[in-house]
Amino acid sequence: MNAPPPAGSTLRPVRIAGTGAYAPAHVLTNRDLEKIVTTTDQWIVERTGMRERRIAAENEAASDLGAEAARRALADAGMAATDVQLLLAATITPDYPFPNTGCIIQSKIGARHAFCMGLEAACSGFVYAVETARHFIATGTVENALVVGTEKMSSILDWTDRTTCVLFGDGAGAAVLRPAKRGRGVVASALGSDGSLSDLLLIPAGGSRRPTSEATVAAREHYLRMNGREVFKHAVTHMVRSARTALHRAGVVISDVRWIIPHQANMRIIRAVAERLGVPLERFVINVERYGNTSGASVAIALDEAARDGRIRDGDLVLMLVFGGGFTWGAMLLEWEKGS
Ligand SMILES: CC(C)(COP(=O)(O)OP(=O)(O)OC[C@H]1O[C@@H](n2cnc3c(N)ncnc32)[C@H](O)[C@@H]1OP(=O)(O)O)[C@@H](O)C(=O)NCCC(=O)NCCS
Q1: What pLDDT digit, counting tens, does each position of 279-335 carry?
Q2: pTM for the whole structure
Q3: Could you tell me if 244 and 117 lie in one domain?
Q4: Can you give the three-state secondary structure of 192-209, one letter per residue?
Q5: Ligand 1 centroid, distance to 228 Cα (angstroms)
Q6: 322 lines ligand 1 (CB under 6 A)
């Protein structure tokens, strides 16, 4: 499924034709966190590289953040919301258990001709969603897709648990996908999952296994729980492995890649991935110090920043690397081709 299409294939190459991002205005610094839990700016910086993160307002939900990122991506692609044919929203902090957040974003931006769905792959969500949407375009089912990664992580954090609440932030990123014109667009991808490790990173209650009850609320089971050390190890291993698989499928080597955009979970994870791949950190797009881990939005926000400030140029090979709850992970290699 992820290999380049065989000769004679009718699959069309698909590119990212526009990007957008939105981060809520309120900045929560490490110093602010010192007033909420027993922690220090020094511990957070040394262990994670994070200095601040954005926190959404009480009346801002994931769809509000996602709608703004979507509007910016559409403007960047020069496309009207009414032209969107597929709207796919990746999130683990949906406005509601159902309907899906794609539908809520649709109504906010006026994408009334799109069919809409949600996708849940935790921090891998954006890459999983781009990979899913691109097949609808590649097969000719639709002519374009709007992919949104959006999270209000602050709504699922236990603000009494210092081992998790300092790590995450809120934000959204979006991309418009269209058939490639000149280049190869998405060159290769390599996605993977291991559901046997799902209990290392999850929200224990609120689903059909443990529906909401007074007991689940009292036990704080509606908040994110994580075994940080285990997650760390698996994240490094799988981001490196999937990068190698995607490069192999594309028939290129790591030195051909201009920019690596890793999931922004922890500076130490990024450094370990860089070392193992033998790539200097200067070729990584990094913003973890300003946003923390925004889960399904993280790579989308970083991609938008690097595309807008001119780091990524037409023809560049860009490698996105993700890892998240599930576990889920993946790599996607793109040949950058903007323009309308
Ligand atoms: C969470 C993480 C930063 C913790 O770093 P670590 O170096 O593994 O730290 P440890 O968990 O070993 O904890 C070390 C000590 O710091 C303490 N500590 C944990 N959080 C702290 C905080 N915010 N402030 C101060 N001390 C803290 C721990 O209680 C522990 O104390 P102890 O030794 O007295 O028991 C790290 O494991 C990590 O980043 N994991 C991956 C998380 C992630 O990215 N998840 C999302 C992936 S999609």
Answers
A1: 999 999 999 999 999 999 999 999 999 999 999 999 999 999 999 999 999 999 999
A2: 0.96
A3: no
A4: EECHHHHHHEECCCCCCC
A5: 6
A6: no
